[in-house]
Design goal:
Oligomer: single chain
CATH architecture: 3-Layer(aba) Sandwich
Pfam families: PfkB (PF00294)
Organism: Limimaricola pyoseonensis
Order of helices and strands: EEEHEHEEEEHEHEHEHEEEHHH
Function: Catalyzes the phosphorylation of ribose at O-5 in a reaction requiring ATP and magnesium. The resulting D-ribose-5-phosphate can then be used either for sythesis of nucleotides, histidine, and tryptophan, or as a component of the pentose phosphate pathway.
Helix content: 25-40%
Distance between the termini: 30 Å
Keywords: ATP-binding, Carbohydrate metabolism, Cytoplasm, Kinase, Magnesium, Metal-binding, Nucleotide-binding, Potassium, Transferase
Largest sheet: 10 strands, mixed
Radius of gyration: 18 Å
Number of domains: 1
Bound molecules: adenosine-5'-diphosphate
Number of helices: 9
Protein name: Ribokinase
């Protein structure tokens, strides 16, 4: 089982002629609502990749449709808590040039009951995998528990916060960050990511692919991304990380899991949307990339 302690957000996407300036009032020309949040995206990616996924987190009173959608993708939501307040949500304005501005209300994602997470994780078995990101509470507590129980522990350091990464580092087997986050972390720690006390570090490089660093030997392996026309990079990193972890849980070696994740993320950037735009394993294998 892939255990994911992660955010669940309603993405409200407003199409606007331009991003509103301070003090400006603007009518949007389009509105769509979708499932998002790094946690939910990653759970959907892992499930679409064929993994068995149990999501840990919380939604508010308005979050029923999001749980239904997650379950529709095959994500087990039995341990997702239901609160009275609002669900996490994102107000996303996108202009004609696909530039965006995003405001996030964390809502229920930051009010997850620690005892419930602890009890849920106690059901995990050695050999299971645990992943979390920086959009919920309890990352460090849960990662420490998973590590102590013998699970493989992965962390996606986004949205980036140096203190959050520093706190979770001792419990990690795998750290995934993008290029900017890797630079920020190296600067905050005063050492290169090659020197991190984490066995495997993967740095994603957008259209350039990714680098996988085995810190024990310092070996750096590069994977190229296929050339695609990018229409929406929302959730590209989540798709990549979800597919990578699902692959590892299915017994793929790192190079094969990275290759599959790279193909999945490339397909995602060719489509609009977040969780709902993540390709299935069949699509990933069939695509001519
Ligand atoms: P994030 O979305 O977290 O900032 P990246 O931009 O590095 O992370 O993207 C994550 C992964 O998505 C990359 O490693 C790559 O595999 C894939 N990807 C992102 N942008 C593109 C692109 N324009 N073309 C092909 N693949 C892409």
């Amino acid at each position: 089982t892939l255990w994911n302690l992660g955010s669940i957000n309603a993405d409200h996407v407003y199409a606007v002629p331009h991003i509103p300036a301070p003090g400006e009032t603007l009518a949007a020309t389009g509105l769509s609502r979708g499932l998002g949040g790094k946690g939910a995206n990653m759970s959907v990616a892992m499930a679409r990749a064929g993994g068995r996924v149990a999501h840990l987190g919380a939604v508010g009173a308005d979050g029923g449709w999001m749980l239904e959608r997650l379950e529709g993708y095959g994500v087990d939501c039995a341990h997702v808590q239901r609160h009275d307040g609002p669900s996490g949500h994102a107000i996303i304005t996108v202009d004609a040039a696909a530039e965006n501005a995003i405001t996030i209300w964390p809502g229920a994602n930051r009010e997850i009951d620690p005892e419930a997470v602890k009890r849920a994780l106690e059901r995990a078995e050695r050999g299971d995998l645990f992943v979390t990101q920086n959009e919920t509470s309890l990352q460090v507590e849960a990662a420490a528990q998973a590590h102590a129980q013998g699970l493989t522990v992965a962390y996606a350091a986004a949205p980036f916060d140096a203190d959050a990464v520093r706190a979770v580092l001792p419990h990690l087997d795998l750290l995934v960050l993008n290029e900017i986050e890797a630079q920020q972390l190296a600067q905050a720690l005063g050492q290169p990511v090659e020197a991190l006390p984490v066995p495997n570090v993967v740095v994603t490089l957008g259209a350039k692919g990714c680098d996988w660093i085995e810190t024990a030997s310092g070996a750096r392996h590069h994977v190229d991304a296929p050339r695609v026309e990018a229409v929406d990079t929302t959730g590209a990193g989540d798709t990549f990380t979800g597919y990578l972890l699902a692959g590892l849980s299915q017994g793929l070696a790192m190079p094969e899991a990275l290759a599959r994740a790279t193909r999945a993320a490339a397909l995602k950037v060719g489509r609009h949307g977040a969780a709902d735009a993540i390709p299935t394993l069949e699509e990933v294998e069939r695509a001519a990339l």
